[in-house]
Amino acid sequence: TGAITIDPGYKNTGSCKSEITFLNGEEGVLRYRGYTIEDLAEKATFLEVSYLLIFGELPTASQLEKFENDIRKYTMVSEEMKSIIDGFPRTAHPMGVLSSLTSALTAFNPKSVNVENEKELYEAVCKTIGKFLVIATWTFRKRMGYPLNYYDNTKGYVENFMRLMFELPTGPYKVDPKVVAALDKLFILHADHEQNCSTSTVRIVGSSHAGLFASISAGVSALWGPLHGGANQAVLEMLQQIHDNGGDVAKFVLKAKDKNDPFRLMGFGHRVYKNFDPRAKIIKKAADDVLGTLGVEDPLLDIAKQLEKVALEDEYFKARNLYPNVDFYSGIIYRAMGIPVEMFTVLFAIGRLPGWIAQWKEMRLNKEPIGRPRQVYTGSPLRAFKEVKDR
Ligand code: CMC
């Protein structure tokens, strides 16, 4: 073997060839299977985009109808899963519970999918998309102490998300179609982002031929961290902190620049985008629209806008090409919809699920070898073993 090049964080290492997502960080371009994120966010639905990512083509009307019906068929979750949820303390973070529940699904779906068999693969895809939504919302119900509920087959996927979250036994939950439309768009914007940390995790776990649920559960854990999907929760907490400190935006920008202070501007910066994150542009506009149509006034939106303005004019941020990313404004929209902050990253996971599935499928169908990076050993040279009595 030749010399090993170390690339911490894989900043310049490609791990695979992929046909799914195109990203140009310098120009701020994002496309799924050749379609621009702007077109998809404006004109498609989340399940349509999921189909596109996973199967490579936009579905025809009948393919889409079948896909929606097939997902619906798999939204029942085993009764025993409920007792697993019961075992968690109510204070548990929903992302930890979601990762555990996704892993627990392997117990009730033990058969590993034969990826070469189109029908089996299709069923596994529908099953994952169906069940994941239900268990994701159950993490919230557990936290709130609400009784667990079931998918309503007469309603769409995103509408069901709101119902599954908020419907109480006292009566039906009226879902605002504007909220559904905005959420659908947000899920599309999160649906894939090539070889990010959680997706790479899903591919690498899957590369050992671990099953789909096991691979997705690892992806959920990777997404949870505040440098990745967890940033959407961290942004809102930061904005709240700025607000509670009298709204002094400049002070926090100064803190973020201080190398002796671990504080970073959450929702700023990106490994690949060295220009505006195109998703952030769409979300910023959506934040104005959603808050406007819902008649919500949120002082945190004003703080976010001021913070963005001050940071974008600052030499430190300019020199490092640090722009707002997808997580910067999404939390403000979620908050306006009544979604509590600890659920924000769960929403990211629901959105990212089709991307994880598409990437897992591509990796398996391409027959990629097991993911196994090398290292350069920097530990002790050879040493003679000493008996415990001689140490
Ligand atoms: N605030 C202050 N300084 C920053 C920030 C920030 N948010 N982000 C990067 N920098 C600085 C960093 O200190 C470094 O400075 P220097 O060159 O002087 O040492 C330089 O910019 C390059 O940063 P890096 O940490 O080497 O870049 P990276 O590619 O390893 O990290 C990142 C990318 C997204 C983890 C990072 O920008 C960050 O921590 N941002 C805040 C967390 C966040 O918003 N994450 C969400 C990412 S987007 C969606 C997602 O993945 O979920």
Automatic annotation (TrEMBL):
Protein name as catalogued: Citrate synthase
Catalytic residues in the record: 270, 327
PANTHER family: CITRATE SYNTHASE (PTHR42871)
Entry keyword set: Acyltransferase, Transferase, Tricarboxylic acid cycle
Gene this protein is translated from: gltA
Listed Gene3D superfamilies: 2.20.28.60, Citrate Synthase, domain 1, Cytochrome P450-Terp, domain 2
Pathway this chain belongs to: Carbohydrate metabolism; tricarboxylic acid cycle; isocitrate from oxaloacetate: step 1/2
GO cellular component terms given for this protein: cytoplasm
Top-level taxon of the source organism: Bacteria
Substrates-to-products reaction catalysed: oxaloacetate + acetyl-CoA + H2O = citrate + CoA + H(+)
